[in-house]
Amino acid sequence: MNDAEFDHALVGSFFRLLAENGWARTNIAEAARSAGLPLAEARARFPNRAAVLLRFGRMADQAALAEVPANGSVRDNLFDLLMRRFDAHQAHRDGVLRLIRTLPFEPSLGLLLMGATRHSMRWMLQAAGSSTAGLRGEARLRGLIGVWLWTLRAWERDETTDLSATMAALDAALNRAERMATLLGGSSADETGDVGEEPGSAPESPIP
Hints:
By secondary structure, this protein is mainly alpha-helical. The protein has two domains: 1-47, Arc Repressor Mutant, subunit A, CATH 1.10.10; 53-192. The chain is built from ten helices and no strands. α7 packs across α8 (134-157). 37% of the residues are buried. Residues 183-203 have low confidence and may be disordered.
């Protein structure tokens, strides 16, 4: 078993236990035992529970970035990238939903995950072909964070097997952000990659 396989096994076990037992009663040692993984290696690779969540976020990023279209508009590329991130979340849906319900009671954890979300959305913008440099890049980044969090709310409620409700919400959020950018005097997202400001109020669910 290589490092990537080890991490996938431990993260999957951790989220299964999280779904069953909640955040307070889930620990790395039990996740390793449940997955039949060596405790010493689990300790070396995951010093704390936050490390598991951050690794999960990077795994979702890697899944999204595995198939970046060579052509296409920034807006279409962002749609594909973010839906692949939601597919990665869907694989651990019950655990992720349990984690989201925990965040209001764990503010420090929420701050950590918001920082991770910023890093992830920066990667998504750059992979889609958009610059994140300067003030304009910061506006794009904040806008995409808003799009992600807005769509995350829809994903929480989405009970369809093909995530059609999530896709519709993401499409609408990107359209709204694109229109906002144009109204504020920017070019369209297809030309500049500017996704504008947040499409409405975002939920406090900064899952990476």
